[in-house]
């Protein structure tokens, strides 16, 4: 499916950014809609897909880019900035305009990378970042969403992201010592000041979503959701639908598992975050190989890779779902964008789900976890 080299994408970026600098060019998606799109990438219909999705009132590309693993050290050692800038800019060339980071990734270094990479195309992209932690000696040190802390955190985020506003400002994890209304009220003030444009939440319960939304409309909830991790189908996604809130699944490729990154022999050393994930124990991996086989089966039917099936499946669940697959590789971004070409009929979705429900999952969250703040 991938017929052109990455250098084509890079050239596109350079030519587009030169024109953008001169103020004579439209956004990549506008390009993508037109016959005159420079350097149209053969075989990648995604780039010409006019579809966009809404997260509340915020318009985004239907698939975003999760930038966490570029610098966080969660799944791989932190990558060099010089190697990651082409991935981020290449994603933009492929039609991605929605980029996800957080203060805690690194900490700080991921925002620095994203800010540097997106600076030349700032006005054409949506930047999402998250606050909610204290830091000590360059490390995360507990939750903190006190209003004054949020305000000073946002000042740092704006500097690192090289911008005057954060398009989507998320609370990363609820601080049990601060009422959610106070957090929402603080973000409301930041929105009034123009330092944030939209409000997001992450890993909170339907009750918290409702309380926050009453104070300041929430544009997006970002929580873990994939073919394997489906707990949030218990009330959370429906609450988003009811309130007009977008849902942004993190971990949509099941942290690489549905991208065929591991096999039944995969084991994780204690310095890998994956070693602490309960659905990656040897027993769980073995059980989930059956899910992977099912995903491969659908991949054969749809002429798609497993990662593309994983992404197309989450997007097919609701029109307000916008996954943000994380990757450090431009060829994976390109492949993931190909998920935009994969669709499921209602009958196929039912067939897929029937098969899924027969598979006994191990170490995943139970439905009751969806109803409590994480
Ligand atoms: N709100 C939160 O609490 C929270 C928590 C975690 C993450 N996030 C955000 O959500 C984003 C995505 O989540 P995630 O990174 O945890 O999980 P993910 O997107 O499910 O998986 C990321 C892993 O999948 C691999 N991958 C991606 N595309 C692939 C492909 N086409 N083929 C094979 N492997 C592929 C990547 O490896 P390669 O680098 O080798 O491609 C990476 O190791 C993060 O980047 C971050 O921005 C938010």
TrEMBL record:
InterPro entries in the record: Aldo-Keto_reductase, NAD(P)_OxRdtase_dom_sf, NADP_OxRdtase_dom, TAT_signal
SUPFAM superfamilies noted in UniProt: NAD(P)-linked oxidoreductase
GO cellular component: cytoplasm
Protein transport as UniProt keyword: no
Keywords for this protein: Oxidoreductase, Signal
N-terminal signal peptide: 1-32
Protein name: Aldo/keto reductase
Organism of this sequence: Maribacter polysiphoniae
A molecular function (GO) term: oxidoreductase activity
């Amino acid at each position: 499916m991938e017929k052109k080299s990455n250098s084509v994408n890079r050239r596109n970026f350079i030519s587009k950014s030169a024109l953008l600098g001169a103020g004579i060019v439209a956004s990549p998606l506008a390009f993508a809609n037109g016959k005159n799109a420079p350097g149209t990438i053969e075989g990648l219909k995604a780039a010409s897909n006019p579809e966009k999705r809404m997260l509340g009132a915020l318009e985004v590309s239907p698939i975003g880019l999760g930038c966490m693993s570029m610098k966080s050290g969660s799944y791989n050692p932190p990558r060099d900035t010089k190697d990651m800038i082409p991935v981020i800019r290449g994603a933009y060339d492929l039609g991605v305009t929605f980029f996800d980071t957080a203060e805690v990734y690194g900490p700080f270094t991921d925002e620095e990378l994203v800010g540097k990479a997106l600076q030349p195309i700032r006005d054409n992209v949506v930047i999402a970042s998250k606050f909610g932690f204290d830091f000590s000696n360059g490390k995360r040190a507990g939750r903190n969403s006190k209003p004054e802390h949020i305000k000073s955190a946002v000042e740092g985020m704006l500097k690192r992201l090289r911008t005057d506003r954060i398009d989507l400002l998320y609370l990363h994890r609820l601080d049990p010592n601060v009422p959610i209304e106070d957090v929402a009220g603080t973000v409301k003030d930041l929105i009034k000041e123009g330092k944030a444009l939209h409000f997001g939440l992450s890993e909170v319960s339907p009750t918290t979503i409702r309380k926050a939304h009453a104070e300041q409309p929430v544009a997006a909830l970002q929580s873990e959701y994939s073919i394997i991790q489906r707990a949030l189908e218990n009330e959370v996604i429906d609450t988003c639908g009811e309130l007009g809130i977008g849902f942004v699944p993190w971990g949509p490729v099941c942290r690489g598992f549905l991208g065929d990154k591991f096999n039944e022999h995969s084991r994780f050393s204690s310095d890998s975050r994956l070693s602490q994930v309960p659905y990656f124990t040897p027993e769980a991996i073995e059980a989930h190989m059956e899910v992977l086989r099912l995903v491969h089966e659908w991949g054969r039917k749809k002429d798609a890779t497993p990662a593309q099936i994983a992404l197309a499946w989450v997007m097919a669940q609701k029109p307000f779902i916008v996954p943000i697959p994380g990757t450090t590789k431009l060829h994976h971004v390109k492949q993931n964008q190909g998920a935009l070409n994969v669709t499921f009929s209602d009958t196929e979705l039912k067939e897929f789900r029937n098969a899924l429900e027969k598979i006994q999952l191990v170490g995943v969250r139970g439905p009751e976890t969806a109803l409590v703040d994480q």
